[in-house]
Amino acid sequence: MGEMKKEINFKINGVSVVASRGETILNVARKNGIYIPTMCYISKTTPCASCRMCVVEASGMDGFVLSCNTPPVEGVEITTQSAALNHERVNIMKLYDVNHPLECGVCDKSGDCDLQNKTLEFNVGHQDFSARDQLRPIKHWGLIDYEASLCIMCEKCVHVCNEVIGDDAIEIKVGGYNSIIVPKNSELLDCTFCGECIAVCPVGALTSSSFRYRANAWELERVPSTCAHCSAGCPLEYETRHSSINGDDEIYRVKNNFEFTSLCGAGRFGFDFDNKAKRDEGAFNKAIEAIKSAKAIRFSSMITNEEAHILELLKAKLGIKLFNEDARKFASFMRSYSSVSGKLHHSGSLDAIKQSDAVVVIGSRIATDNPGVRYALTTASKHNGAKIVYTHPMEDTLMQNVITQMMKHEVGTEEGVMALLANALLSDAQLDDDERAFFDELDLGYIYAETNIGEEEFSQMMKSFARATRRTLVIGNDLIAHERSNNIAKLAALIEKYSDFSLVVVPREVNTLGVSLINSLNVDENISDVVGYNAKGSFVISSLEGADLAIAALNQQEGTFVSIDNRVLPTNVALTFDGYTLNDIAKAFDIIKDETIDYTKELSVSSGFKAIAFDDLENFLSPLGEDNRGYILDEVECRVDGKIQELDDMPEFNGTIIYQCDPVLQFNNYTAKTKQLPKENLLRGSAQFAVAAKISDGDRVEISYGSTKITREFRVDNELKGTVALNPTFDISVDASRYRFEKSKIVRVV
């Protein structure tokens, strides 16, 4: 058999073009700047093929060809514009416009509407036919409204919900001219409310219920920025306008470039976390005094790289300590990783996950920890048929559409699971003598028994991965916060070094990774005389309520974050803040720069940052979807002097255990203060958990773990199994670096 030809040469409108294997005529046309109209096509899903706008003529063929799902053949000549094609497209538009209500004056989509644009493009000014109109009531689905009378059945929403998000929550109820979109297997919409269906809708059929009738598209200013809720670094645009004639500016909605990127509901609907506090000179002076007498500054990773850099300068100037356990443990994990891998940064990215055909996810309830990773996994599953192994003590129903194998292990045994994983993946690898000795000396019987994962489960995994060529290992916070995290990091580095797996380490907060590269952090000693910067302390400087000195929230600042992709991303000011900044505080200590962003080009080159000024950072996606935001960190070589240690005895977690884990759309105190996001702060456990804890559905309970006590309502959740309950943390102040499984005492509050 001859080798399959990788490139196909053909012509579009007389221009010679080349297609790679798997590309369609439409892909190639777009790459070459040749316009073919579409209505139902989105780059990130498989072609919907429902609109027929993209038809073209092909030499040697009668009739028209759908360019969105037809690959070219060698030597074919394609025509994209002709009288016959124009006639066809005009008729398609007339069908679309039949009885489409003329509500442009009040429709949210007006000025931003594909149907409007194409109706004008094809000069459809009159209609020769009509159809009997139907009564189609508006459906109110929580954050999303559906107006069926405006729907053109392009199917974009269904494709994106199924193929990219993974909710698979809507479908078409087929009935010819009566067809509508309906929730799948449910009366009401049962989904994670990412709002991606609103984003892709080309007309005003699917809209944001809170935005409805509030503003026209052309009245809004667009501010390109980066989402500040998790480490995925999703690009978004804040759309702002003054709230009344003399009112302040307000964010009206958030949009994304849906053609290539996706947003979760926290990014789309959780935008109003700005700080409305005013400038207070007295509080500023007290802050300066507090820092002068402080032994340390404790801060969270919900800050920009530039702020982290200023804190490092203050540390050097004042000789004080810096506490941030989340970033310190992440840095420690990555140092151990570097000691085996020989490099500073992990190799993988969200894009690598999307392109994978085999993935292992370990140490994270990924759907709620990092929706960006979840969407990448869904894309890999739906588009590449990826085999996805999910390793965790708890199943996750949000992931059931994409997981091909669940490996359930005992709480606390992550080091053993990583050793078994490395043992399976590296059985044929060319390891050095010490490394091979480590695997030869493993007491596999003991580890299988303690982790509760059987040897046959690894055989099944290896069998399912046998034909895979693009593999990725995704590691979450449960490994970074584990007391054996340093050895776990070395095992992860070994897998990356000696196999074809790329590695993605998922940071917990929006800028955990940036802070870990910029700051030299001390172990938090829980002492008094600590100034808290967006964290707890004896004097608190924060963008949250109740601060001793108010500062700007992340949607009110210019600066940069480092995302999960090791990409330095710019964020911009959506709303102004009149108060003080950390830069103002630094100036009081003779650390002088005009603006916070003057530090962007001074970020540490030895950590991979480039000496690029903030205003020189790009912030856009190309028409073909290439990410031109900021830059990727330079790779930094490190000394290879790490040795894998013998495994520790596996800990036992008995009794009632809680897992600190936020519900969908909640991440932290900032999402907690937004208006639209649901704020369900229940302790959720299985019926089995309720029996073990001697509590019942609806009880008020007191949960004690470590030195913390909180009260919550308990709810039996039939989707959960076992004796671990989910405890949200977005509404309490919690150390993001703690191992999230906690032995807990739970008592009913009478």
Automatic annotation (TrEMBL):
Entry GO terms, CC: membrane
A GO BP entry: ATP synthesis coupled electron transport
Residue ranges of domain 2Fe-2S ferredoxin-type in the record: 6-84
Sequence ranges assigned to domain 4Fe-4S Mo/W bis-MGD-type in this UniProt record: 220-278
Domain 4Fe-4S ferredoxin-type residue range list: 180-211
Domain of life from the UniProt record: Bacteria
Cofactors, names only: [4Fe-4S] cluster
SUPFAM superfamilies listed in its UniProt record: 2Fe-2S ferredoxin-like (SSF54292), 4Fe-4S ferredoxins (SSF54862), Formate dehydrogenase/DMSO reductase, domains 1-3 (SSF53706)
Alphabetized InterPro entries for the sequence: 2Fe-2S_ferredoxin-like_sf (IPR036010), 2Fe-2S_ferredoxin-type (IPR001041), 4Fe4S_Fe-S-bd (IPR017896), 4Fe4S_Fe_S_CS (IPR017900), Mopterin_OxRdtase_4Fe-4S_dom (IPR006963), NADH_UbQ_OxRdtase_75kDa_su_CS (IPR000283), NADH_UbQ_OxRdtase_ferredoxin (IPR054351), NADH_UbQ_OxRdtase_Gsu_4Fe4S-bd (IPR019574)
Pfam families from the UniProt entry: Fer2_4, Fer4_Nqo3, NADH-G_4Fe-4S_3
Residues of the 4Fe-4S His(Cys)3-ligated-type domain: 84-123
GO MF entry, a single one: 2 iron, 2 sulfur cluster binding
Keywords of this entry: 2Fe-2S, 4Fe-4S, Iron, Iron-sulfur, Metal-binding, Quinone, Repeat
Listed NCBIfam families: PRK08493.1 (NF006305)
Name the record gives this protein: Ferredoxin
Organism of provenance: Sulfurimonas denitrificans (strain ATCC 33889 / DSM 1251)
Lineage: Bacteria, Pseudomonadati, Campylobacterota, Epsilonproteobacteria, Campylobacterales
